[in-house]
Write a structure and sequence with these properties.
71% helix; Tetracycline Repressor, domain 2; 12 helices; mainly alpha; Arc Repressor Mutant, subunit A
Length: 264
């Protein structure tokens, strides 16, 4: 059964859909700012009304609940990032280039949709499917795309073979998502510059390491090895000299005539 306020919303949409949608969007954006600043649990309809310079009843004219505001605030950005990651994963780019694009797309979205997408991370919606199953599904799609890009890179030798794709994905997304604690779109570095820095760090760590080339120094024996070989050579020479001396004495003894015995 539709409530009276629900009927009024429907009627307003029919009368001037553009104006109604525009005002509703203003309310969603104001709510997102407050969710970011105060947290979802600590934000009330009164807070949102005060932020907009209106009253609580007016807010209800456009939305039915605070949860509706939260979901609308984050849905578009989360869905866009997930679908973007899927397109990147299906592209013909190399795995390192795909990973770079995915990282850049996510951080650009955090900046372009600030603070809405940060609210999604801040409120744990990425890990709680009970809040909204569709949003949870999009989050899992994004994770799946990153894992498959990493697996592709490991398989073709672009990335080091000893990495576990799922663990690597959690490490990369953990670092990217933590930016909700410190990144400011108006700050010293742009989202693109931060993405380039993160990409360089992650890709540098994932690239297989070739064994270092052998140098002349590597081929030269160490002082200890030289000393050991010198000592061994000296001992060998001494042993050979002793053997020769013994041989000469033995030969001389054999050739020397016996002493005459004393006569009686």
């Amino acid at each position: 059964m539709t409530s009276n306020i629900g009927r009024r919303r429907a009627a307003a949409m029919q009368q001037d859909a553009q104006a109604y949608s525009s005002r509703r969007r203003e309310i969603v954006e104001a709510a997102a700012r407050l969710f970011r600043r105060k947290g979802y649990a600590s934000t009330s309809f009164n807070d949102i009304a005060e932020e907009l310079g209106t009253d609580r009843a007016t807010i209800y004219y456009y939305v039915a609940s605070k949860k509706e505001l939260l979901l609308e605030a984050v849905r578009e950005a989360v869905e866009g990032v997930a679908k973007g990651a899927l397109a990147i994963r299906k592209s013909e780019a190399t795995p390192p280039e795909k990973l770079r694009r995915v990282i850049e797309a996510l951080l650009n979205s955090y900046s372009d949709n600030y603070p809405n997408q940060f609210v999604y991370i801040q409120e744990g919606m990425a890990v709680d499917k009970e809040q909204d199953k569709d949003l949870f599904k999009f989050g899992k799609l994004y994770e799946k795309c990153v894992v498959e890009i990493l697996q592709e890179g490991i398989a073709d030798g672009s990335f080091r073979p000893d990495g576990d794709a799922k663990v690597l994905m959690y490490g990369i997304l953990g670092a990217l998502n933590w930016t909700h604690r410190w990144m400011n779109p108006q700050g010293r570095l742009s989202a693109k510059e931060i993405a380039a820095l993160f990409s360089a760090v992650f890709l540098e760590g994932l690239v297989p390491r070739a064994p270092p080339p052998e140098t002349l120094k590597d081929r030269e024996p160490s002082k200890a090895a030289k000393a050991s070989r010198t000592s061994a050579t000296r001992k060998s020479a001494e042993a050979a000299g002793s053997a020769k001396a013994r041989s000469r004495r033995a030969a001389a003894s054999t050739l020397r005539p016996p002493k005459p015995s004393a006569s009686n």
